[in-house]
Amino acid sequence: GYLTACFGKLIYSSITTSGKVIGIDHIDELVEFSRRNITKDCEHLLSSKVIELFVGDGRKGMETFAPYDCIHVGAAVSSPQSINILINQLKIGGVLI
Predict the structure, then answer these.
(1) Which end of the chain is more exposed for a tag (fewer CB within 10 A), N or C?
(2) What's the predicted TM-score (pTM) here?
(3) Residue 32 CB: number of other CB atoms within 10 A?
């Protein structure tokens, strides 16, 4: 949740403030932990939906909100198929980190 919060603050403070940050983790408790921590200091990022947090398989991305300017993968992606799933959710010129 830490990087999600950092990205959310960057988006919120940008000139356009029209961006969105999606956080995904496969462990429900970690998503709730992130939600509580972000609420302590940056509740407006959640209430404004600049940040949205989901329980899910991050290796599959979140096609609902695609295409993305950037996708940051905080864990190992073990197969070329998983990498291609994420690459296909990027905008043309988007970056996978």
Answers:
(1) C
(2) 0.88
(3) 14
Q: Look at residues 10, 6, 50, 58 and name the one whose alpha carbon lies nearest to residue 31.
A: 58
Residues 1, 28: contact at Cβ < 8 Å?
A: no
Q: Of 82, 53, 25, which is closest to residue 96 (Cα–Cα)?
A: 82
Q: Across the chain, what does the average pLDDT equal?
A: 91
Distance, in Å, from the CA atom of 90 to the CA atom of 75, rounded to the nearest integer, reads: 18
- Give CA–CA dist 17/87, Å, rounded: 24
CA atoms within 13 A on the CB side of 44: 6
Is-cis flag, bond preceding 67, omega within 30?
yes
pLDDT at residue 16, rounded to an integer = 61
In the chain, how long is the greatest CA-to-CA distance?
38
Whether the Cβ atoms of residue 46 and residue 38 lie closer than 8 Å to each other: yes
Nearest alpha carbon to residue 55 among 22, 76, 27, 85: 27
